[in-house]
Design brief:
Blueprint lengths: L1 H33 L4 H25 L17
Helix pairs in contact: 1-2
Length: 80
């Protein structure tokens, strides 16, 4: 019984972490939409925020042994 409870808590935490990353992505993209700067800069920043979010989700899933292809240095190849 305790083991099932522990698994449920772990799953909830993983889901909460993914939701947190996606909410942060939405917030950053909303901020970009509100700015009146160069559209080209927006597309680069949008790409950055999306790439960072995907990387963080991969890490979360890797930490719970649900994703094996996570590379902690993946962002470095883009200079991030």
């Amino acid at each position: 019984m305790f083991f099932k409870w522990l698994i449920m808590k772990k799953k909830e935490k993983v889901i909460d972490n993914v939701v947190k990353v996606l909410n942060e992505l939405d917030t950053n993209l909303d901020k970009l939409d509100q700015l009146e700067n160069d559209e080209k800069k927006h597309s680069v920043k949008t790409w950055y925020y999306q790439t960072k979010a995907v990387h963080e989700i991969k890490k979360i899933l890797h930490d719970v042994q649900k994703y094996e292809k996570y590379d902690d240095k993946e962002l470095e190849k883009y200079g991030l």
